[in-house]
Amino acid sequence: MIFSLPAVQFDSKLLRKYDQAVPRYTSYPPATELKPEFELVDFRAAIAVGNYKKTPLSLYCHIPFCETACYFCGCNTVITQRKEVADPYLQYTARHIRQLAELIDRDRPIHQMHWGGGTPNYLSLKQVENLWGAINRHFRFAPNAEISLEVNPRFLDRNYILFLKDLGFNRISFGIQDFNPQVQESINRIQPEALLFNVMDWMREAGFESVNVDLIYGLPFQTLNTFRDTIHKTIKLDPDRIAVFNFAYVPWSKPVQRRLPQEALPKGPEKLDILQMAIEDLSENGYQFIGMDHFAKPNDELAIAQREGQLHRNFQGYTTQPESELIGFGVTSISMLHDVYVQNHKRLKDFYQAIDAGDLPIERGVSLSQEDVIRRTAIMELMCQFQLCKNEFESKYHLSFDRDFDEYFAAEHFELKKLEADGLLRLSHNRIQVTPAGRLLIRNIAAVFDTYLHQKTATNFSRAI
Questions:
Q1: Both ends of the chain: CA-CA distance in Å?
Q2: What is the pLDDT of residues 330-365, one digit of tens each?
Q3: Is the peptide bond between 118 and the residue preceding it cis, with omega within 30 degrees of 0?
């Protein structure tokens, strides 16, 4: 079925009303629900079930190292210019890959792989090749697999990019954040405009199937006019996908952000103006709003998948690949199986010690109940498709034998009616349909089905806008 989604509508009054702290829903339950009391036997059992079902796989490999700190960053990183630290890490990660491969049926196809960080291009070409080989020795990639990585343009040259493409990567992403030199200086990420255009030229020359760039609004010294200039220069770059992230200022959990000049951060009203401008200008220049902070050209696979009702979401964000289980390699990475999520140790020392002891380097996890799985489906349908068909949902989970959708989610239905009254969605006998004005607040709509959020104060999440 082909869905036709109307353009997103910006309603500043609604955005101010619903600007609350809510999860990003790259998973449900959110990663905040992973606990150290988790039993590893549940992880092994979940892998065995996936082997039996021959569930497709996605792989994630975390490279934590960066040469310098970006003051806006919220990632788990190790800041060092001592490149030799990567050698033992890659050796331990190769052992971790082998550990997991011994548990996973090799006949399960890999539909997606992503390398993130940190800075994956912190590695030398030889190190990249060795890590690639360690993965390929144990896993079988589908012919049309999406194989992507993030790169820092400050530490790239043409040969490095061509090497990545020749090795087998077919998608690539790099962070711009902002073109303005004053903003770049304040966040400790100076990237001359000419450098960014050269990097894009090299990526196009290499023939990557998709190039994604990241922008951030809400950084120090940004104004409506300066960020409009960034948007227009980004459009000239002509990437396939653009992510426009809201900067989450959380210095209590990310101490590096204390180095930012807090007095220079744009205030709420100006942030809304910046967001509105970004949406309008990108839309007018041919980019389709996918969801939350993502835009893509209409012929991009993300846009096509959404129109066909086949868009999915995992810890890497939106994806076109079929529902699969995610296996994470390396420090701090997350594995996301059908009904079990686990996260590896965040500290290198703990990660290394676990592997030396012959243990899986898992620090925390959570086993999902059937109720969690049902609610996850509702949340992800809304996050990805901006609508939910109640009949299909009832059929998938056999709700009609007992209660229909509205009876099962009676308490949620009451909350949805409130959102309908505010114009965020439309309810009918068989469908929840997010309105153009509600699309920017999809996290708030999805949060109606989140029982964990209702049990705590949402201080660990970024604000919706």
A1: 31
A2: 999 999 999 999 999 999 999 999 999 999 999 999
A3: yes
